[in-house]
Amino acid sequence: MGIDEPDIDPSVFLEDVEMRIGEIVDAEPFPEARKDVYKLTVDFGEATRQSAAGLTDNYDPEDLVGRQVVAVVNLGTVNIAGFESQCLVTGVDDGDGDVVHLQPERAVPNGTRIY
Q: What region holds the TRNA-binding domain (predicted)?
């Protein structure tokens, strides 16, 4: 495994990408989507946003509710099968093709900015 992308100016990254901690308050199956995703509602403290997130291999909807996640909140809205996905819940591939969501190591206030 190597690092593929060239270095960037850290101040530009932190100015352009807004990542925040949110708590999943609702998760439900999304059979209308072409990919296997859930419809999530994520509480960021002062705002609640929805996301279509591919966490279906490792998580049941009821297991996601109450978990904090790291999400990109300033990518705009993407329409997926009539559902407005308003943030990108981040995750990593576990090496077997399943997605593992990223979360803080301990609880922090919802809406906390990543820096």
A: 13-115
